[in-house]
Write a structure and sequence with these properties.
By secondary structure, the protein is mainly α. The chain has one domain: Heme Oxygenase, Chain A. It is 81% helix and 0% strand. The protein is built from 12 helices and no strands. Helix 4 packs antiparallel against helix 5. The longest helix has 28 residues. The protein is globular and about 50 Å long. 32% of the residues are buried.
Length: 224
């Protein structure tokens, strides 16, 4: 099987994630700013745990080649991606200290600890499958928004987010990750016990991506 088999087997959850109202409002610039700021704060906390998950993948790796494969992801997260996120948040009036002292929301905790738990209790294939909805989904969302006739870039305060996730650099990086994921999945039958376990992991992580959008979209309601 490959990653497309996983997506096709949980189409409802995948569409709820990649076509979420949060994303649609962001694309038109109508997303309330408090929702976006909340997302930025939680995403910072998410990225820290995401880096730990990739470090865990090195520990779980079965071969030296696998260890080498995951190392650039850890380095990229710690040396550039999180730094870029902090710099981007600075433009929105959020300092690194503001991000560090932010409490993790329940959705953030549930998602990140689920991924780490899968990594601790399962093998490297299960861990990478748990990580997959994030790197596959954001790239897909970027592509979808860029070609969507309803997307507004000019005058949209969130245009840079769309530009980032639809950009060539991220798309190429995602393609490389997809190729590696498909290599890990190649000899696994979707309908086997192992394949069904991986599908369950992928579906659960996708549902948690939906919850991650929800917690920021509903932040104003939660405070009312």
């Amino acid at each position: 099987m490959d990653h497309q088999d996983l997506i096709k087997a949980c189409t409802q959850e995948w569409d709820a994630y990649t076509k979420h109202e949060f994303v649609c409002l962001l694309a038109t610039g109508k997303l309330a700013q408090p929702c976006y700021l909340h997302y930025l704060k939680q995403d910072f906390l998410f990225l820290k745990q995401y880096a730990r998950a990739y470090a865990l993948a090195i520990y779980k790796a079965r071969t030296l080649a696998e260890m080498r494969h995951f190392l650039p992801s850890v380095q990229a997260l710690l040396q550039s991606e999180i730094s870029h996120h902090v710099a981007y948040c600075n433009d929105w009036g959020l300092s690194e200290l503001d991000l560090e002292v932010q409490d993790e929301e329940v959705g953030t905790i549930a998602y990140t600890r689920y991924v780490l738990d899968i990594g601790m209790s399962g093998d490297v294939v299960q861990l990478y499958t748990a990580l997959a909805p994030c790197f596959i989904g954001y790239a897909e969302i970027g592509r979808l928004l860029l070609k969507d006739e309803n997307t507004i870039l000019e005058g949209n305060p969130y245009a840079s987010w769309i530009t980032l996730y639809s950009g060539d650099e991220l798309q190429q990086s995602t393609l490389e990750n997809l190729q590696y994921l498909d290599m890990l999945l190649a000899d696994i039958d979707l309908h086997s016990q192992q394949g069904q376990k991986l599908l369950d992991v992928f579906r659960s992580a996708t549902r948690m991506e939906v919850a991650f959008w929800e917690q920021s979209l509903n932040i104003k309601t939660n405070k009312d």
